[in-house]
Design brief:
Layout: H1 2-14, E1 28-31, E2 34-39, E3 45-48, H2 51-60, E4 65-68, E5 71-78, H3 87-102
Length: about 110
């Protein structure tokens, strides 16, 4: 199951041509030294947003904060399974997240 879900994450990232997936055991995307998406051991995808946008999307997506390995990931929204049926839509959110982190001060 993990590998099937990882294929979905990889297909999502592949729709965005400005960045690549990183990590073997903990797949993620990052820019400017900041991670902005993550695929956890529970086969869940989280995407990072500003606090205001996070709150809006949690409500809009009928979702929740994102946790990885038991830790709350600050700014991340859990992408519901139902949204993964439309990867083009989710890719727009992933691109939005990328735009947000590249506007931050590099780490």
């Amino acid at each position: 199951m993990w590998e099937e879900k990882l294929e979905v994450y990889d297909a999502l990232v592949a729709r965005c041509d400005r960045f690549k997936r990183k990590g073997k055991t903990m797949p993620y995307t990052s820019a400017n030294g900041c991670m902005f998406s993550l695929f956890n051991k529970n086969c869940e995808i989280g995407i990072r947003f500003s606090k205001e946008v996070q709150e809006k999307y949690i409500s809009q997506f009928n979702s929740s904060i994102y946790k990885s390995y038991g830790a709350v990931m600050k700014g991340y929204v859990l992408i519901p399974e139902t949204m993964l049926k439309d990867l083009d839509r989710v890719a727009k959110y992933l691109d939005e997240s990328y735009d947000s982190v590249i506007s931050l001060e590099p780490k």
